[in-house]
Design a protein that fits this description.
Elements: E1 3-7, E2 13-18, H1 21-24, H2 30-44, H3 103-119, E3 123-126, H4 136-145, E4 151-155, H5 160-166, E5 172-176, H6 182-187, E6 190-194, H7 195-205
Helix pairs in contact: 2-3, 4-5
Length: about 210
Amino acid sequence: MAKVSVLNMEGKQVDEIELNDAVFGVEVKENLVHQAVLSQLANNRQGTQKAKTRSEVSGGGRKPWRQKGTGHARQGSTRAPQWTGGGVVFAPVPRDYSFKMNKKEKRAALKSVLTDRVNENKFIVVDDIKFEAPKTKDFVKMMNNLNVSKALVVLKDNDVNTVMSAKNIPTVKTALTNTINVYDILKYDVVVIDKAAVATIEEVYA
């Protein structure tokens, strides 16, 4: 089992914990991680893009001129794609881009990125992340103490003061243990996690 130092909000070591290898010491499966990222990005797409084809634009009922004898190229409708105001060739239509991964694949992908963060020493466990009041300044101070700038902060409970303190920092995102995902863990340089949240993740995913 990997051992990780537990720091306080001042950045000083106060304890040490062993991480469960069933969650934080698995084989990193890059193909599943890649698939999980693609799935999340695809599922976030609205898929509402729409343009009209020649059959949907208004007008163009009559032939603009006779077939022969005018010197012009033959035309059947003013709503054909080559005309101004005509329809779009192969126009995009609303569609669902989402695709599903099965539960085991999702869990394996998440455990892979958590293991990777531990292996790269980008997994910081904090004894207890609590703030008396929602102050961005206090949260920045904690981040500086931990020597971290761009981080995903994982909490066990939805502590309003902590969430509000981090809200205005563009390089920080807070998440609960049941909302963490592969994309966010990879997007942010470091995972800063509450000690209680580690136990919860091990309980759920082990």
